[in-house]
Amino acid sequence: QVQVAESGGGLVQPGGSLTLSCAASITPFNIYVGGWYRQAPGKQREMVATISGAGRMNYAASVKGRFAISRDNAKNTVYLQMNSLRPEDTAVYYCNLDPPAFSGLPKYWGQGTQVTVSS
Fold first, then answer.
1. What is the 3-state secondary structure (H, E, C) of 16-83?
2. Alpha-carbon dihedral angle through residues 58, 30, 38, 103, given to the nearest 10 degrees
3. What DSSP character marks residue 14?
4. What sign for the dihedral angle of Cα 96, 45, 93, 15?
5. Using an 8 Å Cβ cutoff, are 80 and 69 in contact?
6. Distance CA 7, CA 93 (A)
7. What's the pLDDT at 2?
8. How far apart are CA 31 and CA 2, in angstroms?
9. Digit-coded pLDDT (tens) for 31-54
10. % of residues, the chain, pLDDT over 90
11. Of 64, 78, 91, 103, which sees the most CB atoms within 10 A?
C-alpha cells in the first residue's frame, strides 16, 4: 500500500521559516510530478508549487521568491522551503504526486499538515 507522509508543519511567527517534507513509497518516484497545495479555511485548495521529475519548477505568484520546492529522488521525498512567511500563508498544506498523462497510474495526496503563521 502506497504511503504519502507529510511533516514539518507548525506554528511560526510572521517573517519566519518552515520546511515541509513529503515522503512517498512510490516506485518509480522520479516519473511523478511532485507538488504542494494548500487550503485555508473557507477557501478552495490552491497550487503552491510543483516540480517535475527532471526538476522543472512552477510557483504560484503569491509565493514566488519566498518559497522553494525541491526533490530528492533517491529518498522519494519532495520538500517545500518556506521563508518570509505571512499570516495569509496559514493553511493546511497537502503533498500531491501526479503521474505522467495517459500513464494510467494513480494520483496521490497526503493527509495534510497545518501551517499557522501568527504572532
1. CCEEEEEEECCCCHHHCEEEEEEECCCCCCEEEEEECCCCCEEECCCCCCCEEEEEEHHHCEEEEEEC
2. 90
3. T
4. positive
5. yes
6. 10
7. 80
8. 15
9. 999 999 999 999 999 999 999 999
10. 92
11. 78
